[in-house]
Structures are given as C-alpha cells and as structure tokens.
Amino acid sequence: MLGYIIRRILAVIPVMTIVAIFVFLLLRLTPGDPAAIIAGDMATPAQLERIRTSLGLSDPLHVQFVTWVGLLLKGELGTSLISNTPVTQMIGQRIWPTFNIAVLTIVLSVLIAVPMGVLAAWRHRTWVDYAVMAFSVLGFSIPVFVIGYLFIQAFAIELRWFPVQGYAAPSEGFGKFLARAILPCLTLATIYVALIARMTRASMLEVLGEDYIRTARAKGVKETVVLFRHALRNAAVPIMTIIGTGFALLIGGVVVTESVFNIPGIGRLTVDAILARDYPVIQGMILLTSGLYVFINLVIDLSYTFFDPRIRY
Amino acid sequence: MLRIQERLHHCKGYARGAALGLLAGAALVSGAGLATPAFAQDKTITAVMHSGLRVLDPIITTAHITRNHGYMIYDVLVAVDENFKPQPQMADWTISDDNLVYTFTLRDGLKFHDGAAVTAADAVASLTRWGKRDSGGQLIFDITESLEAKDDKTIVWTLKSPFPALLDTVGKQSAVPPFIMPERVASGSPDEAITEYVGSGPFVFVQEEYQPGVSVTYKKFADYVPREGAASWMAGGKNVKVDTVKWVTMPDAQTAINAIMSGEIDYIEQVQIDLLPILAASEDVTVETRDDLGYQTIGRMNFKHPPFDNKKIRQAAQMALSQEDVLGTLIGNADYYKVCGAIFGCGTPLGDESGSQTLTSGGDVEGAKKLLEEAGYDGTPVVLMQPTDVVSLTAQPVVAAQALRNAGFNVDMQAMDWQTLVTRRASQSKPAEGGWNLFFTNWMVPEINSPLISPMLNGRGDGAWFGWPKDDAVEALRADFIAADTPEKQKEVAVAIQKHNLDEVLYIPLGEYAVPQARSNKLTNMIPSPVPVFWNIEKAD
Question: InterPro entries from the xrefs (chain B) (predicted)?
C-alpha cells in the first residue's frame, strides 16, 4: 500500500510537468495583452510596448518559460502582472472561501442525498422512488443561478433569514460563516444531491438484487442493517467516486455561484485572470487545480479499500 | 407488511426530525448572522464600484477605477471645479507676465500618510513621472525649460513658450491626473507600477485588507487638512465625515441590487438601466445621475488599410450611421441618453455640434450609397470587431454593421472578448491577416473635452492612437489651440477641429449617455462629480 501511495505521488511530477508546459504555451498562443489591461484605453502603442518590456512579456518564449520554471522550482508561482501581488498570496486569500463552501456543500449533499438514494432504491418503483427521481431530474435541469436567485428571493429578501451576499470566514464566528454560506451551499447542493442520490439509487438497486442481501434478509437481519451495513457499504465505491469528483469540481471553482452570492473564491479569481490575461495567476491556478485533482483521485482510490476490502493495491 | 409500515413510519420520523433540525439550525444561524452583519457598521460606507481595483498605480493606467482610487488616497496641486475652472488644491500659484514661469506654493499642513511633510521635491518628481505618461503632460514637457523645487514649498515651472492651458491640464480630473506621491515613490520608472501606496489625500489605503479585484478599504486620514470652502468636483474642501469607506466588487449586477435593497451596502456607482425598475420599488434607495456629463460612445476606423484609407469611404460610413439608432439599442431608456454631435461633448466649454447634422438626425443611407459609388468602393470587407463581454460595447457594432450593410458595405463582424480586441487593435497588419477596420469604445466626456487630451485627435501617424491617422492639419489645429490664450480663441479653434474631424472622420461621435447611481437614503450631501468621490458624504445611523 505504501509503495502504491509513493508511486502515485511520484506520478504527479510528470503530470504536473506536462500541464505546466501545455498551459504556458496555450496561454502565450491565446490572443491578449496584459499590458493593455494595465495601461488602459488611452495608452499609445509605444507606451504599451514599454510596459510589455518592463513585465518581461517582450522576452522570447523560452526565456519566459525558463524564468517561470525557475520560480516554480523555488516554490513560487510568480507575481500577478496586473495587481503586482504574489500569486501564492492571491490564491491563499481566495482558496479558503472556495474550500469551506465546497466542504459544507459536500457534507450537506451527502447527508441528504445518500439516504434519499437508499430510500429510492428500497422503495423501488413506488411514489418515493419517483419523487426522488423527479427531484434528481429537476436538480440537474435548473440552472444553478436560477436556484440561487430563487433562494435569495425567498430566504434573504422575503423572509430575511440570511444575508443576500458576501462571505465570512469561520474565524469571524461559525454562526456568521454559516449564515452567509448556507444559501450558496444549498444552491450548489441541489445539483450534487441530485447527482449523488441518483448514483446511490442505481448502485443500491444493483446490490439489493445480490444473493447475500436475500440471505441476510432470510436470516432475519434488521432491514436498516441490511440497507446501510450490507448494501450501502457494497454500493459505496461508485458513490465515493462521484462524491470525490464532485468535491474536486467544487474546489476547481464554481464561478456562477460565487458571482451570484459574491463569494471571493478561486472560480472568480481564475475567470478574472483569464479575462485580463494575467498569465502567472492562470498558470498558478491551473497547476493548483490539477494538483488537487490528482490528490483527490488518490484519496478516492485509497478510500475504496476501506469500503471494499477485496480491493488491494 | 406491518414491519415495513413501521419502518416507513420511522423513516418519516427521521425525515421530520431532520427537517426540524434543519429549520432550527437555519433559524439559529440566521439569528447569529443577522446579529452581526458585516456591512452594517456605523460610519462605514460600503460601495459597489463599477469594476474591481487591481492596478494601484494611478499614473501607469488610465483605468477609471484606479483614478478613483487615486483621488481617495492622493491629492493634486490644482483641481478643476464644476465650472471647468482650475482651482488651487494643494498649491496656489502665480504666473509671470510673459506666461513662461509658473510658481506654485504648497499650502501649510500637508502631510503624507506616513507622517512626512509634503515637499516641493515630491511634487516635482510626481509631475515629472506624470509627464511621461499623460498625453497632455507630454505636450507641456515638450516645451518645458525646467521644473524644479526652489525650496521645500515652492515649485518653479519654466516653459520655453507659453502654454495657456497648463493649469487646465495639470488640474484635469481624467484620465490621468498628476497625483502627488513621495519623491522616493515617484522617482521610479513611469512604465513600472509603483509598489508603495502612500499619499496625502483624505483617505488612507489599508494594505492588509486589500484583495485585488475583490475589496479595498480606506480609513479617514486624521491629519488631512481640507481646503477652505465648499467641495466642487475635485476642488474645494474635501471634508471626510465617515470613518471608513469599503469598496467591494460584485460581478453580478442583480446581487448588488439585492444587497442595497436589503441594506447590506450603501452605494452602487453604476446601475444597469434595465435593472432600474427593481430599484424603483424601494423606498430606502435613491437612483440619480451624479455625473451630468456622462459618456460619449465613438467609432474609430483604421486609416492604414482599405477601405477606410479612403476619405470618401470613411465619410460614407459616417453618413450611414444614426446616433439615435445606436443609443436606442445601447441604452434603451431615453432618459439616460442624448443625441449629441459635439466631439468635445455637449455642455462643455468647447462643445459644438457643427457638421454633425447627418449623424444626429438619423443618418443618410442614400447619401452614403452615393458617396460609396463615387469613391469606387470595390466591396473590400470591413472587419468590424465586436466585444461580447462588455455590456456597454456590445450593441454599437451590431447596429453599425446593419447600417453599413444597408449602405452597401461588405461587413465582416467578428465577435471576440475585449482583451482580444485591445490586442488586435494594436496590430497594424492587414485586416485579413489579423488586423482590423473598425471598432467602438466609450469615453468619459472629461477625457475627450479638449483637443489636448482627446487621444483620437492625435494625427501623428504611427505615433497616434489606434487607427493611426496621419493628419498634419489636425496637428496644426492642435498647435493653434495650445497657442490660443483666451477662451474665445480656444473655442474658435475647437470649432475648426470639430468640423475637421467630421470631414476627415478621425472618429465618429455616436452620442452620449449617462449611467445612474443608487445610494441608500442614509447617505446625504453627496456632491455631483464625474468621479465618485467620498468626501463630504454623511451617513445617518
């Protein structure tokens, strides 16, 4: 197992190298000029060229790449071309809102979706099952910003239970954090509940038809034990996969939800950086996201061994 | 069967419990949240600005948000008031009889936020750096004999030839005002952004709370000594009456509307016209236009390549366009736009609408067709760049493309994001090889209200603004303007430039529009100004 983990961690190096080269080249081949964003609309071509030179953007591509790789090897991601702020500092400011919202969303989603999926499978082809499936289709179908606006209208503007927008860190008080995080998390959770409930139902349906479930029931094992200990544990591998992928997607940034609820997360940071062609920030974000994906995939793979002892690495 | 029903009953019980738990939690949480709302502290103004602040150097960029930031933390020697007259701000001045020597004297009590006194050496370094970036400043420095600090309080600016508009140029509020910074900061390269943000203005920048593009916090500068007299635009007494001003960025316009209606924020600098009906329902919010001058939307052609290297074809394109059509599509609400053919803006001292009759009265498609025929237009495609990600620039290309097609142009409208457009417009390549023929943009009227500062009136070919017209006549007229020593003479030259512009079609003025702001009724005494300033404002508890 330890050898497997080490091999997987080492595999990150070539993955990140390929991502780094690909992203660097792709960005430089995309039309756009950070100097134009810095200088504004009135700048003359000569002024733009001087700013480009001062930012190092007039250097040959290979020189820019070597400079960037040199920074990476020192553990730095460079400095934003636009705001002149270290990229690590910018990501450090923006990652926590995204991470906290992602964790809360996933926890809420799992707490709601897994029992829903189990219930739907258990009550297969009854109104309960149909209701869960109908919710699932709705959850997938309604655009996230529509759900967000509906929640804001209902719970923030009409009922005034929660603030309309903004983010508070847990360090400012957990109640304050929850008050601001609950609506965006519920908004995001709508999709993930639909996704996880559907996957749980499908996986459970498959498992509930197995002989050992019939045997357990024949032996008089309590139905809750059959469902949650025997069936759910065996159905957990695909559910874990979808939860892990969902978490990775959330960490990667949910720019629409961040915009609707004004959360200063990394989704908006990435989009803003792309629009401004802020190369170091984009490169830093993509490296971070790809690294997180690799890490989360590793955690998911390792979690399989917990739910299914037959799986060995 | 009974067991299943019992289990179902248990499940219902769990569901009910969970629902009650969630509701209880929600109530608890909402109570906790509402007890300490982040945006409801006394004497703090929370404002949603038109854009996120990312560039902190107000000299290197012409971005409005950075200029606004500049006015928060820096001060200026001279400032233009609401009557377009330069007024003393940090300094008073005298002018020699031959109009060649300007002597500025700093007023008493000026301090930077780090406690150091503002000196003449700081002002000289700041003006010098500004003069290398700003187009108006460059004109002054072209004829500057010397600029020096005579002592700690006296700046002597000696010219080789008179520049009657010097005070107007040094006191202008857009696009780049000469903000005064400490000498150690201002002595850096004008092409590299500063990294220390110490001013002597009415607010102090709180660096540790700054998040680029997200939020920025300013605290009242306790040692700021306002000028005597009432505030007027950027001039007069900048009396700060709140403790903190916080700018937050909200990328979603609807979120900002919801936030001001629920009392979480106090001010929205720019409200989308189509969202105004929502705000109209709120008794706690006032919607108004703070800046009477507003914006001018314009079209700019590329003089280097066919078909717009031909004057008659440029005239045909201009003739095909109708300001009313463009503005009606762009803004929609007639309360917020006006047809105006003055290239220096309607309502400004130099504003004049001579020669703009066709543009302001609906265009002349038949006339345009005739001109095109006379010019021998061969169907060369017009590459029209359309930015799709800037709300205030998406409509003009669509309307113009149809108008040009109606007149017989072969239009190739290419959609792109604004960043791609600003990169591509810098390319002098042929339109078919990555170049362009026509694009649209908007200016604040104070940015184009004089031939000294309007970038489109630069006729220096490759040294000119994008489009690169080589126009010696407009350069001669600009020189005449510089030499004009009375407002009457300046106006006379300005009218000549107006007519010349519409004849040569250096650019096409497509009318003016205003952008309303929204403020909580708790905010009072907000002065009218093209720059959203935060001095003078009082906030009720």
Answer: Peptide/Ni-bd, SBP_5, SBP_5_CS, SBP_5_dom
The pLDDT-based confidence of B41 (bands split at 50, 70, 90) is: low
Q: Return the structure tokens found at B324.
A: 């009313």
Q: What angle do CA A142, A143, A149 make, to 5 degrees?
A: 100
Q: Per residue, what are the HEC states of B468-500? A: CCECHHHHHHHHHHHHCCCHHHHHHHHHHHHHH
Q: Which residues of B touch A48 (CB under 8 A)?
A: 426
| B419 touches A: beta carbon within 8 Å | yes
Helices (H), chain A: 2-29, 34-39, 45-55, 61-73, 87-122, 127-141, 144-151, 174-208, 211-218, 223-225, 232-234, 236-251, 255-260, 266-275, 279-307
Which pLDDT tens digit goes with each residue over B323-381? Answer: 999 999 999 999 999 999 999 999 999 999 999 999 999 999 999 999 999 999 999 99
Nearest to A175 among B33, B212, B252 (CB): B33
Residues sharing a CB contact under 8 Å with residue A209, sequence separation 6 or more, in sequence order: none
* This prediction's pTM: 0.86
Helix (H) or strand (E) run with residue B403 in it: helix B395-407
Rounded to whole angstroms, how far apart are CA atoms A52 and B379?
37
Average pLDDT, chain B: 91
Cβ-defined contact of B32 to A157 (cutoff 8 Å): no
Residue whose pair of structure tokens reads 């499940």 in the numeric block: B11
Rounded to whole angstroms, the Cα distance separating A164 from B7 reads: 40
Tell me how far apart the alpha carbons of residues B219 and B184 are, in angstroms, rounded to a whole number. 23
- Taking an 8 Å cut-off on Cβ atoms, the answer to whether B33 and A176 are in contact is yes
Assess B254–A contact: CB distance below 8 Å, yes or no.
Answer: yes
Q: Measure B193 CA to nearest chain A CA, in Å.
A: 8
Say yes or no: B215 contacts chain A, CB-CB below 8 A. Answer: yes
**Number of other residues whose CB lies within 10 A of the CB of residue B235:** 24
**What's the DSSP call for residue A86?**
B
Mean pLDDT in residue range A109-113: 96
Residue B400: asked if its preceding bond is cis (omega within 30°), the reply is no
Between β-strands B215-220 and B203-205, what pairing exists: parallel, antiparallel or unpaired? Answer: antiparallel
State chain A's maximal CA–CA distance in angstroms: 85
Judged against a pLDDT cut of 90, whether residue A26 lies above it is answered with: no
Name the residue ranges covered by the structural domains of chain A. 2-73, 87-307
Tell whether A51 lies on the interface with B, counting CB pairs under 8 A: yes
Alpha carbons B223 and B110: distance in angstroms, whole number: 8
Average pLDDT over residues A52-74: 90
Give start and end residues of each alpha helix (H) in A142-278.
144-151, 174-208, 211-218, 223-225, 232-234, 236-251, 255-260, 266-275
Among A31, A45, A162, select the one facing B33 at the smallest CB separation: A162
Rounded (10°) angle between helices A127-141 and A87-122:
160
pLDDT for A45 equals: 79
Q: Which domains does chain B have, with CATH numbers?
A: 4-55+198-291+516-539 (3.40.190.10), 74-186 (3.90.76.10), 295-513 (3.10.105.10)
Architecture field, domain A87-307? Orthogonal Bundle (1.10)
Measure A313 CA to nearest chain B CA, in Å. 38
Q: What is the distance of C-alpha B305 from the center of its chain?
A: 30
